[in-house]
Predict the structure.
Amino acid sequence: MFKVMKTQSNPSLIGSRVPRSDARAKVCGTEKFIADYSLPGMLHVAVIRSPVPCGELRGSNRQYLETLPGVVATVFAEDIPGENCVPIVWRDMPALATGKAKYAGEPVGLIGAETAEAARRALAMAKLDIHPLQAVTDPEKARDNDALKVYGEDNVFSHLVIRRGNIEKAFAEAAAVVEGTYRTPYQEHAYLEPQGMLAIPEGDGSITVMGSMQCPFYVQSAVATVLGLPLAKVRVIQAATGGAFGGKEDVPSLVATQAALIAWKTGRPARLIYSREEDIISMSKRHPAVIHYRSAADSAGRLLAVEADYILDGGAYATLSPVVLWRSIVHSVGPYRCPNVKVDARAVATNRVPCGAFRGFGSPQILFAVECQMDQLAAKLGVEPAEIRRRNLLAVGDATATGQILKNSVGSLETLEKALAAAGVAPSKEAGEGRRAGRGMSTIFYGMGLGAGGVHLARTGATVQILQDGSAIFSVGTTEMGQGMRTVLGQIVAEELGIAFNCVHMTPTDTSRVPDSGPTVASRSTTMSGNALLRACAPLRETLLHVAAGILEAESANLVLTQGKVETRGTNPPRAVELQKVIDECFRRRECLASEGWYRTEGTTFDRATGQGDAYVAYAWATNIVDIEVDTETGVVEVMRIVAAHDVGRAVNLSGVEGQIEGGTVQGMGYALLEEILCQDGIIQNSEFGLYHIPTAEDAPKIEPIVVEKPFDGGPFGAKGFGEQPLMGIAPAIANAVADAIGIRFSELPITPERVLAALNSKTAI
Amino acid sequence: MTQILVPKDLQEALELLAIDHPPRLLAGGTDLLVLRKDNPEKFASFLVLENVRELCGIHKENNRIRIGSRATHSEIEHSSILMKYAPVLAHAAAEIGSVQIRNRGTIGGNIVNASPAGDLIPALIALDAVAELHSLYRKREIPLREFFLGPGRTVCRLNELLVAIHFELPDAREHGVFLKIGPRKAVACSKVNVAVQALMHHRTVEWIRIALGAVAPTVIRAPRTEAWLQGKRLSPELIAEARAMVREEISPITDIRSTVEYRRHVAGVLIERALESSLSK
Amino acid sequence: MSNLFDLAVTVNRVRYERAVEPHILLSDFLRHDIGLTGTHVGCEHGVCGACTVLFDGQPVRSCLLFAVQTHGHEVTTVEGLGTIDNLHPIQEAFHEAHGLQCGFCTPGILTTLVPFLEQNPNPSEAEIRAAISGNLCRCTGYQHIVDAVKLAAEKMRA
């Protein structure tokens, strides 16, 4: 075993660069992802999917499939023992389509076979009797009166508004008005590990499900629903998860039902690992958006009014669209004071793959419009892009677009000034023959946690236990998916209990260990599970100090617990006792060194009629400055450098924070320039990594992360959630930089060389 | 059921090919195994060329260079012979896929796969390379510019094996350039690629060969532009005219990777850059 | 019907003799037949690089090779680099320099780097980026990976 350092002199782990607690296993290849689990008698599952975006299901050749070699069972909608429903926000999505298939790739039937190859061979032989129906594949047309109805009377899943002040008056009095229509595309998560689940029927009538996921409690609910079991009989354990970014929030519930249905029908373990192609065609994506946006400012460059009307393409089922839309609308004015706001946002239904969560959750789309508008207002008024932001940025005491008065932890201006200082002078526009350089910026914010839109889930549990040898284990209900939660929470526990970081161990997230803690989304793990852990640690600290007080013959109020020891405060010299001695004494006295913590956020509000309320408990803030060069002959935009300043409250792990900034920034760059799902008549054309282009190491620019710390009094050690924020403002900063370089404003993403060249040749914006 | 045949030498390989439904030839597998993923039943048997030594090596033979069909992209990229005599080919190889693909993928595979966007093909056509096809009963040599019939289609018959590619040893004064544009900087299939091989004398074009990929059903030459450039002195004006002329000679399409307009425009830009690079020599 | 192939291959310095189906991919052989699950499968199209292993010392995509093609050859996977209590310097560097997040792409990156750093003891940033450009990572934005490679080079020079 590697050396265990029982005592560590580092006075504070918080803010350090301690290596990730999962790094050793990950560099050795011993970390177990779901595809690495195999059980005796395990079946392999294949999913029969609709080939058409809309079609009436009339039958299948399942009897024939069941005669094929290696095939053990098939499952169709009529075989589902419980309710044919995958509950997410609403209960409109079936586990297996029945009657009508509503998107290409929708699951219709399942095959369970002895080997993965037998399952695949049977899948190749599967035939659906499906009568194609006319489909709604264009979100802009979904709202037309004569459009076919995918959902309800009007194809609108959800309609949210903000009504604030009087926009008519403000626009009439404005010194500058700019208006634009912005289009943003699908974005594929492209987590490196495809979706996968393993369902194990237990001998006692319960079922255990393991897999790649963000939200074990969602999976638990879906499996219980589909199998008709009480939640108590469904145990869900997260396996190591190879990237998620929101793409493993809701859809793993669907994947889990597929494995569970075969396992339940056959009484055998069943595993399902998606191929990349079926992952891309059938799993959630970032919502495409069409945004009409109008902004007005006075002659001093103060934002007077915003009017926005936009749609998000939700796809065939509501899934997370209602809450994605909610986060989107709360961010729809950006991080600015604006007294007059009228926003109408709708999530519409189409016969396309359901869209769901993706880093930013509806905000990258609207922030693209917001930040492109700000630059255009600045240009119209003749002020610098930085200056117009400086004049409008929210500060403590200001009201947001939802009327929330900000009380603390507002680092907006500081991120702006620090980013500007680091970026220095912009490079010359002439960047060599046929090359033009440009600089662009964006200032954004991020409402941390679930906010008023998800207040019923804004809770978390944790347990902590100190073991006899002085090590500690803890459990939480949120998940590690690469973002570094396990490390950050380990630091918090180690710091609180005075135990060395490498003697603190997090158990796999398991629904049987902690109460339903809601989802791992919304950049909430550090704050929510961190707070729950602080609460779980508090009684343990109390016990340790109480027992130490006995040993040191001191008042426990005068003792401090540091790394590896308890010492007196205010005596000279200080007297100390080793923590291990205190723990030994606790065990001798049979004290309880296990504890639970529970945390819920309070105080968020939202009025649906006006869109006003205290939407989130706090906000993270960021400024991005991007330098690009455009090859005016090939249209290729090259990102040279990105300065990204983020107010995170407090960085618990500095390297982890930088890693989130760098990773999110490059995803944002992909969204801006490279990534495009080509969807023709509702069918995805580029369902492989060779045709969906995410940035490589050579595409990724030099990133200069800047960490700003305006502590949030409701977060552990002042920390705020911010993991999504790095992606959110990159696309508009790049679009602004391109406009700066070549004088052409792109209002549609991605800004591909084909679009740039077409615009350069016609000298018009696209 | 998949069958894998592993011949020990060229003779055995040719014998195994001399049947009615011969197995598919498998060299690096970087294209073939991807194709097989989508349609495994179509690829029932493979002839693995791993041990056929006659297909290896990059050699300078008197007045020509001969490259065994199993030479990998990495071997071509790093070959001192090619770096010296035919850098256009070494540079093209360096632009393919990823290091992992280049370590397995072969020149023979790149040719017989016959993608209009295959990166080695324009370089080889610019070098006026010749393919050596062997079957059990005969050998034939086909100039590469006559080798391709359409996307994925060549004159190579199912019981023939591409053994080697050769081309005349380029004169030391010749100059070759390969340029491509893809969707990103690495692991990228070309939207357009071009290769130019030319002999210049005091900035005058003695002769030039221009090959372009992904702008027609097969990689093509630009004979009108070539003929027009011959004997002329390179100047910015001349290059601008060549750029326009090349755009007229190609017939690109819009597909999942790019648009007809973009390909037409960028083909001209790449030719311009290749000629400018010749000018600077 | 059986036409199993008698495969003999050396993996991580251990010789394996197995009768395998001829169409088994090297990635599946490593993961399922001999239990080396550190080699990950991310796209099955040779694009992502997660399945990279060393074939006679050179990085290749194990998803684009039949196992039988390695007959008589040597394969090295991430498990062949170091162990959890005795890390290879490259593994140490990735651990110390936060060169990973979800870790799914990590084994493929580490194996790619072994011959690269042996041949390039003091690589530039551009060389490092080119070397790992065939390994997609969606989490890190590559910067901490590049830092880790620099640290690894330093460790290997020492």
